[in-house]
Amino acid sequence: MKRVAAFCAIAIGIPGLLLGRESPAAQGQDQVPALHSQLQDKNPEVRIAAIRRLAQLQDRRAVEPLIELLSRDNDPEVRRSAAYGLGQLKDGRAIEPLITSLKDEHPEVCVNAIFSLVQVGDGKRLDALIASLGHQDLHVCRAAAVGLALLGDKKAVDPLIHSLKDEQLTVRSGAAFALGFLSDRRAVPALLNTLQDDRPVVRKVVIASLGLLGDKRAVPVLRRLAAKDPDSEVRARAADVLQKLTQSQTK
């Protein structure tokens, strides 16, 4: 989860969020009421700074105010920050608002919502992340794939296998990526079939995932791709993973 927090801190443009410390005097005061007032300030920078501090404090009195900002604030940077802050608070009340915000018109809000959902435990987030693989923005699609990988929930394996046949390129490639990190070899036959995909980017992702799974059933297919695939990058990726698989099998 530290990787998730670091990613989100960078994503919302406040890299000091995870490192900042307050003075001893400030630590002894209840800052939350004043910060709640700042969340209503007309200046979006003031609202973002208040979200930042509330996330540091991890005081759950902030959950409802941040949900309100995520749902209604006119400034996308504020909504993006609110999505991040809710992930830090890890409160189940934020799950439905975060899922709803996956339809926000600004991709940056969706990305932060994805990584916050990873941190807030609930079964509903699995379907929401899988659905986000088909988002129209590539960055959101990639975030959904990474989110599913970080989630590590084996319940995602069967839906992701089904998604390998989706019409959308981003869904197929995102599903293949996540399956590689879920370490479940039930995915191997479906991934091998997906190596017939007509898009090189999908084949490259599938090859990388097969390398992560380390299943010897991939060896004959990788040999063929390394020698005959029409795309040079696919051939190179196949040769590299093939070498690693064969070396691991001889040890």
Polypeptide structure, described:
- With 251 residues, the chain is an all-alpha fold.
- The protein folds into two domains: 1-122, Leucine-rich Repeat Variant (Alpha Horseshoe), CATH 1.25.10; 155-251, Leucine-rich Repeat Variant, CATH 1.25.10.
- It contains 16 helices and no strands.
- It has helices at 2-11, 24-27, 32-38, 44-57, 63-72, 76-89, 95-100, 107-119, 124-132, 138-151, 157-163, 169-181, 188-194, 200-213, 219-228, 232-250.
Please outline the helices and strands:
Blueprint: H1 2-11, H2 24-27, H3 32-38, H4 44-57, H5 63-72, H6 76-89, H7 95-100, H8 107-119, H9 124-132, H10 138-151, H11 157-163, H12 169-181, H13 188-194, H14 200-213, H15 219-228, H16 232-250
Based on the coordinates given, report the CATH architecture of the largest domain: Alpha Horseshoe
> Structural class per helix/strand content?
mainly alpha
With helices defined by DSSP (H or I, 4 residues minimum), what is the helix count? 16
According to DSSP, the number of beta strands is 0
**Integer count of domains:** 2
**What fraction, in percent, of the residue positions are helical?**
55-70%
Question: What's the CATH first level of the largest domain?
Answer: Mainly Alpha
Radius of gyration over all CA atoms, rounded: 21 Å
Kindly report how far apart the N and C termini lie.
33 Å
Largest sheet: none
Shape: elongated
- Nearest-integer average pLDDT: 88
